[in-house]
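Dear colleagues,

As part of the handover before I leave the project, I'm documenting each prediction I ran so the next person doesn't have to rerun anything. This entry is a single chain, and its sequence is reproduced below.
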Amino acid sequence: MISRSIFDLQTVLDTLVKSAVRLCEADSANLHQRDGEVYRVVASNGFSPEFELFVRRNPIAPGRGTLVGRTALEGRTVHVHDALADPEYTWAESQKRGRFRTMLGVPLTREGELIGVLALTRSTPRPFTDKEIELVKNFAAQAVIAIENARLFKAEQQRTRELTESLEQQTATSEVLSVISSSPANIQPVLEIIGERAEKLCDAECSIVSVVEGELIRLASIHGMPEAGVEALQRAFPMRRTDETITARAVRTRSVCHVADVLIDPQYQRKDTARVSGVRGCLGVPMVRDEQVVGAIFVARRQPGLFSDAQVQLLKTFADQAVIAIENVRLFNETKNSLEQQTATADVLKIISRSTFDLRTVLQTLVQSAARFCNADNATIVREKDGVFYPAEVYGYSREFMDYIKNIPVKAERGSASGRALAKGRVVHIADVKTDPEYTLVEAQRLGDYRTALGVPMLREGIPIGVLTLTRSEVQPFTDKQIELVTTFADQAAIAIENVRLFDEIQDKSQQLEVASQHKSQFLANMSHELRTPLNAILGYTELMTDGAYGEPSEKMLGILKRLEANGKHLLGLINDVLDLSKIEAGQLVLELSEYSVQDIAQTVRSTLEPLAADKRLAFKVEVAPHLPSGHGDGRRLTQVLINLVGNAIKFTDAGEVAIKAEAHNGSFHVSVRDTGPGISSADQARLFQEFQQADNAITRKKGGTGLGLAISKRIVEMHGGRIWVESQPGQGSTFTFTLPVIVERQVEAA
């Protein structure tokens, strides 16, 4: 059921509770999940609807007066044979409503943390058998797995939302552009959707869009404000540039105004309006064109705090879109006779909104529309490629001209209209290139047969990323309105290029991360194999020489050979750790599940490492509880874990003892390794089980090591469905403990 309904937690929990009631011959059951300091019912079976409503309205706190509270308080299974005969049970109303007598509570724990309680009841005093209790524990374990699966799934959804956030922003930009294209003569719909999208995508609770008219700032749109706040804002507008508000400050300074809490901002003068509107954290972004402020976008939250850098950048993008929309409308209203030009702008914006990531289609449309509606004979768009600017799109020129210029880089110099626009970062208008003493593209001019040239830079944050250039075959300068229209096209081209750049960058970074991870794992695996083969040969020959296969070695030579063998085995162990890590990361480490004995593992570790402890004159103790059950798991890998823990304890302990303790409780083995070494600080404990990490002190630097052993041990224990942790204080030694189920039916995959 868990595998089939991994994303439907309620179905899994309902089925678990129902199955527990049926298989354990109970009359009813509830599953309570921890919610802060109390436990709430999340699944129920066998109780009346009235009783279910009663317990859902009465969450249970830890305490001995209730079954769930007592189980939560003790953190273990609680079995009440008869609720009426239990002197500590005090929730009489619940017992009366539920009509139960025998009760069984089993805790739900994840990595030692209590996350819920599974409670079963019978209407008559009939205690549950040991077998039934074990079965309920199994159901509780399944519930923990289901809850953890749901948690992990939600976390994955969050990561997915973060990865798609930029795409959502691009979609919002396209929607704004679409509205711009559909409202060439009316700015209001554009400002409305900008305010609406800004509020949503910036995770704000309200938004205001305003426009500048002379020295006054007028209200254009409001979203998300309560009625009282709307009325207060309507009274506050129009406001002057000199007013101390977020909007006026952004307009006056022509820069972003970001305040974590306006109620404590000493410069903010409209605190009464802010209180009525319920705003605290505020962000204002000016809408600027040609260094002139034409309006501002304001978003706010009801809680103090700053917006993220990404949200600030997004609001800047909306401000750029609003500037374009305002300018489009101004051009339309001021020049009734240029309706065709305005229609062209709308058509281009439609194509941009429909082809957000098809950059070539967008740029082709821009260059064609710019030439056609500005009465130009030819047009080009120059873009940057590998740090050099080249013609990217061409319209109207002959094939001979195109073949000539396609491989000629455009330099930021005054010898051409495009180069001059790149150098200046502003519009360049050459009435007649033949009479311009600085114009040097003589052959291009001859092949292209043009006289008047107009170069408009495509800017991103004030820096040219390309140039839109128009030419005419006769000396006929472009009008101011035509130059404004070409500037609008260039702005759209810059936005389109930036949109695609951001999208490609996200995709490229994701692919790079994936490839880098694969290469790293493959490199580690390959290098481990390549190093291990010659090292095994060295160790083999060393052993033969030690045993006298090539003649009896001298005492001095024997000492050298033993050191060589010890260092070689140490290096082989490090290589094996690296190989294990690469297998784990690649998902290739597979447990070989079979029966094993904890006693045998402990004795194997003792016989292997006791000589090391004896060399340092350390006491070596092994305390294994009698009659431990046989385990089912990967005994070889668990031996590796214990050898690593004991080996570390011996390595870092200079006096005292090292002790292994093993016992079994509630279907799990509990194995600990205690030492009297220097101890580990809390800061170092937090990163101790990470790859290539060690405690940061003089002792660890002196003892050496790669920092892989504990990370690998942690992975192996977790693959058995267990967990590992450390308890330590500086100067008081350390105790490493791991627990895992006695019976492991299948390998637990990494989250």
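The first strand starts at residue 28 and ends at 35. Residues 217 and 239 are 5 Å apart (CA to CA).

All the best with the project,
I.
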